[in-house]
Structures are given as C-alpha cells and as structure tokens.
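Researcher: We're teaching a course module on how sequence relates to structure. For the next exercise, students receive a sequence and then see the predicted structure as tokens, so they can try to spot secondary structure elements on their own. Here is the exercise chain.
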Amino acid sequence: MQRPAAECLPGGKEVPLVKAVPRYLQIINYYQGMIDAVNEGSLTIEKLEAMTCVCSVGLDMIAIPGDTPATTISGIIADEAAIGMVNQKTTAVRLIPVIGKGVGETVEFGGLLGYAPIMPVNSFSCDAFVQRGGRIPAPIHSFKN
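Model: And here is the predicted structure for the students to work with:
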C-alpha cells in the first residue's frame, strides 16, 4: 500500500508527510505550532470558531480559565451548534475549565495528551442569551461530514 504524499490535519492544514519522520512526531509539531500561535496571541477561540465555519468540526481540548462562568461556556457551545446547523454539519465542543489556572498559564494533561495554554474567553456576558432558553435544531444533513 502506497502512503499518501500529504495529510489534512485539524484546521484544514495540509501537511506533507516525510517518510523519515514518524507520523506522530509530525502531528506533535503541527499542534506545537498552534500552541505557539495561542501564546503569541494570534490564535483565539473566536478565530477557532471561525475556522469551524469552513473546515474543522469544532473546538477540541481547549483549556480555559477555571473561573469562566457556565453561561459563557454555554454561549460558546451555542455558537458551535449554530455553526453546525447553518452549515449542515456535525460540530462538537470540548472545553476544559482548569480550576486555579488563568490566561497565560499552561495545564499538563499527561501522557500522550501533552499540555495546553489557558486561552482567554470573551469577557462579554452570555447571561441574557442563556436565560432565553430554546433549542438549536440539529443539522438535517449530518451525514455529510
């Protein structure tokens, strides 16, 4: 079986596969680039949400401050659900509120999960939005992914 010349990683970035470098090291290098972008301030949760509109399937393993209000987390989940509904695709959110940590710090997950910088979340309140209640319908064509 012939190995492909490139692979599409999360975020839609196509990375050429180098035969001499094991695949897991190439993926670690890709994620290190994303971590570096977060630490530089050039990659935000809002930008990751925007990427969901065109290429990715959601927000995965994103560490946020432990004191983030539940309504703010609910607002982020609602954003992703709305993106999925409008674009007729399945989306997901896996945010990790890290108790006792703030923006700029890192959390070590251990083992193959590595570490993540604590990303800032939008400071505007989602309280009024969440108090409205309601439902966001599932995508009709969820099998397109």
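Model: If you want an answer key for the exercise: The first strand starts at residue 6 and ends at 8. The helical segments are 23-40, 45-54, 70-87, 127-132.
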